[in-house]
Design a protein that fits this description.
Blueprint (H helix, E strand, L loop, with lengths): L4 E4 L5 H4 L4 E3 L3 E5 L7 E5 L5 E7 L5 E7 L8 H18 L5 E6 L8 E6 L2 E6 L2 H5 L1 H11 L5 E5 L3 H4 L5 E4 L7 E6 L2 E6 L13 H8 L6 E5 L5 H8 L4 E6 L2 H13 L7 E5 L2 H10 L4 E6 L11 H18 E11 L6 H15 L3 E8 L17 E7 L2
GO biological process, one term: methylation
Family: Belongs to the methyltransferase superfamily. RlmI family.
EC number: 2.1.1.-
Length: 395
């Protein structure tokens, strides 16, 4: 048994018995010993029954995150090597159309607070919780044994680290390599900037949805909102879209889209990159009575915490209402939410309310989710965050 351990309040062991990996501060009756930030602690029920081994985080409401429910399992180099090796093997059997994929998806891969993406031969890691921060060097050592020729860049510049008592940090954890990487996705060349780009540089979770979207665009005018580096649009153009408009507030992202389109031999006359605020521009299109055949809405996360859910729903409703008004009859809306706090049922209700306010009728013809390399552990439903709807405007 580890020197430090925690004892739960009576009845608070139920979630652990269901294999959920989080232990909240209010569930803890007593902390024995003096565990430091990220230290491994054993977890006992109020009756003294061993339940789990977890990483301790004294400043977070999630006071401990479970490493293992097996009492014989130690949190050591072998533990991390096994987790990484299992995850890599699973991805290699799932992903056959891309040179980039998510290697580790946090709790869903048994490594709470850790995100690792592989871009061709470069790894980008986010250490978002106290436990993985505490064991960063062991994890790097394990990565070196599993993927010995892959340099590692850290993108732990996420707000959630503050809740864990950690400061944001970025930089190379190994010998530096190029921070701009060309990856392949379904035959297309895509430039990823792991240093300046969003998240770890790219939205790998939308891989499957980019291909699905391209099946609706042949001979159509397409508006790609919150376009980032234009990869929804890239697949749309290659699938025969008549004209594409990428709309984003970042000129750097739109300039990257230009580079990507040039690399893929896209005629410049087939697309327009517009630097503008999506909410304002959609209203401008409405005033100008401009319409599109296909509209893609892939906004950033609107709700970071429960207190922002109501405001987030208003934002989703606003942009979906405008998009539905801008669609031609029979047009297609692909709309997404990556806010984990807004579940699929609520999101569909928001879009339905948007249709009512837009005074249009529409049908859901397809439901979308995150790519296969972003699995959802059955006992950790919080791993499901990306939901999408393909909506056809009927009148």
């Amino acid at each position: 048994m580890n020197q430090a351990y925690i004892t739960l309040e009576a009845g608070r062991e139920k979630s652990l018995l269901r294999k959920h990996p989080w232990i909240f501060s209010r569930a803890i009756k007593q902390v024995s010993g003096t565990p430091n930030l990220g230290d491994t602690v054993d977890v006992f029920s109020a009756k003294g029954v061993w339940l789990a081994r977890a990483a301790y985080s004294p400043k977070s409401q999630i006071r401990a995150r479970v490493w293992t429910f097996e009492q014989s399992e130690s949190i050591d180099l072998h533990f991390f090597q096994k987790k990484l090796s299992d995850a890599l093997q699973a991805r290699q059997s799932l992903i056959n159309n891309s040179s980039a994929f998510r290697l580790i998806a946090g709790e869903s891969d048994g490594l709470p607070g850790l995100t690792i993406d592989l871009y061709k031969d470069v790894l980008v890691a986010q250490f978002l919780a106290a436990g993985v921060e505490r064991h960063k060097q062991l994890i790097l050592q394990a990565l070196k044994t599993i993927l010995p020729n892959s340099p590692v860049y850290e993108r732990s510049d996420v707000e959630v680290r503050k809740k864990e008592g950690l400061k944001p940090t970025t930089g190379w954890l190994t010998e530096p390599a190029s921070s701009q990487i060309w990856i392949d996705e379904a035959g297309q060349k895509i430039l990823v900037d792991i240093e300046k780009g969003h998240k770890t540089g790219f939205y790998l979770d939308q891989r499957d949805n980019r291909l699905i979207a391209s099946s609706y665009v042949k001979g159509k005018s397409v508006l790609n909102c919150f376009s980032y580096t234009g990869t929804f649009g890239l697949h749309a153009l290659q699938a025969g879209a008549l004209h594409l408009t990428n709309l984003d507030v970042s000129q750097l992202a739109l300039d990257t889209a230009d580079l990507i389109y040039q690399k893929n031999a896209i005629d410049q006359q087939r697309y327009t990159n517009l630097n503008a605020d999506v909410f304002k521009q959609l209203r401008q299109y409405k005033e100008n009575q401009q319409q599109f055949d296909v509209i893609i809405l892939d906004p950033p996360k609107f709700a970071e915490n429960k207190g922002q859910v109501v405001k987030a729903c208003r934002g989703y409703k606003d942009i979906n209402m405008l998009a539905l008004q801008l669609l031609k009859p029979g047009g297609i809306l692909l709309t997404f939410s990556c806010s984990g706090l807004i579940d699929a049922e609520l999101f569909q209700k928001v879009v339905a309310d948007a249709a009512l306010d837009a005074k249009v009728e529409a049908q859901v013809i397809e439901k979308l989710t995150q790519a296969k390399d972003h699995p959802v552990q059955l006992h950790y439903p919080e791993g499901f965050y990306l939901k999408g709807l393909v909506v056809r405007k009927t009148r």
